[in-house]
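Quick one, probably user error.
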């Protein structure tokens, strides 16, 4: 390598691009970036590699799948045109929101010029600060009827807690408290049920709803399954203002969960309705990837009231969330403990008493 060219290691390149090192490895696995290697075998990103990776990051943020990103980089314009169309619509929504705020500012200035002070709440609404919490409710059992508030509703809201922490009861209560929201249970049928009653018609309806997103997810490495189709059908159902989904990772393998997490973040950026997701999956709730569109609600094991947790090491509740998000291997080991005496046979030491 020429000493006059500044090469970046994986961590430096990820920081420069605003993504995780894990994302860079994923791009490399799909042939989207091909960094060189040092004599010791470490990845080394040249300025050209970083520029190429920046294009990948931009295309991904526009909502393209890994396969579509590769096609766009090779000159295919169809996927890029569709992504730009969605991005243009999002920008138009932002412009409309700014114009409405500008009109409010002008109205307030005109009122002040005529000697009229703004009414109570006008400034709060102008600055996008809610005068009242977005959700407020009395906590059900196993809590003691404490009052719970959410100051705002993010596009993605994760509900997490250990077994028996009450997270499902909280989720159900949130679905009741948010006007127009619907709870999606483990059977993946909306309440109230909006599917046809005949099994064959219900199956066809589910697959039709899931079709628009399913191919995108499969290109991301997801595994096609009935569990995935049922979940996508719920996500695309018309009517509810918000969806509260129980154990969103149920029936989905690791690769599918990772692809789904990417899709949900794209979905949030496009202004889709809010989601409340019960999860214990580190693939879906990657603490290193949580952004401003996401919030974490922790239900503590000791049944103290649920609280928002910032995705920052050292923040109150962070370690409890990280503990609930054990790796898939650890969760599988916990779910299938060895038979009595198996540990002694494997290690030559007596098992715990």
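Nope, works fine. Designed sequence:
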């Amino acid at each position: 390598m020429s000493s006059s060219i500044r090469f970046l290691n994986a961590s430096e390149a990820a920081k420069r691009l605003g993504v995780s090192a894990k994302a860079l490895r994923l791009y490399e696995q799909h042939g989207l970036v091909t960094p060189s290697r040092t004599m010791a075998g470490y990845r080394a990103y040249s300025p050209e590699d970083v520029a190429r990776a920046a294009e990948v990051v931009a295309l991904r943020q526009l909502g393209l799948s890994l396969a579509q990103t590769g096609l766009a980089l090779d000159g295919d314009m169809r996927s890029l045109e569709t992504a730009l169309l969605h991005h243009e619509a999002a920008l138009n929504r932002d412009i409309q929101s700014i114009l409405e705020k500008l009109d409010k500012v002008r109205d307030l200035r005109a009122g002040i010029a005529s000697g009229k002070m703004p009414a109570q709440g006008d400034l709060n609404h102008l600055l996008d600060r809610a005068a009242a919490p977005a959700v407020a409710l009395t906590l059900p059992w196993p809590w003691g009827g404490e009052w719970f508030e959410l100051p705002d509703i993010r596009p993605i809201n994760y509900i997490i807690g250990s077994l028996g922490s009450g997270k499902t009861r909280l989720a159900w209560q949130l679905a009741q408290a948010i006007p127009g929201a619907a709870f999606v249970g483990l059977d993946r049928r909306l309440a109230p049920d909006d599917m046809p009653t005949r099994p064959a018609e219900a199956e066809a309806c589910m697959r039709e709803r899931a079709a628009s997103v399913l191919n995108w997810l499969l290109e991301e490495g997801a595994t096609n399954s009935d569990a995935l189709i049922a979940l996508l059908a719920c996500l695309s159902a018309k009517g509810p203002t918000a969806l509260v989904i129980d154990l969103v990772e149920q029936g989905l393998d690791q690769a599918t969960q990772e692809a789904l997490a990417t899709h949900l973040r794209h979905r949030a950026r496009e202004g889709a309705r809010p989601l409340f997701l019960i999860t214990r999956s580190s693939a879906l709730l990657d603490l290193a990837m949580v952004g401003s569109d996401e919030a974490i609600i922790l239900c503590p094991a000791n049944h103290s009231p649920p609280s928002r947790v910032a995705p920052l090491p050292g923040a109150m509740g962070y370690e409890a969330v990280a503990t609930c998000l054990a790796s898939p291997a650890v969760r599988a080991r916990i779910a299938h403990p060895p038979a009595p005496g198996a540990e002694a046979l494997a290690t030559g030491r007596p098992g715990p008493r």
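Confidence is low (pLDDT under 50) at residues 343-353.
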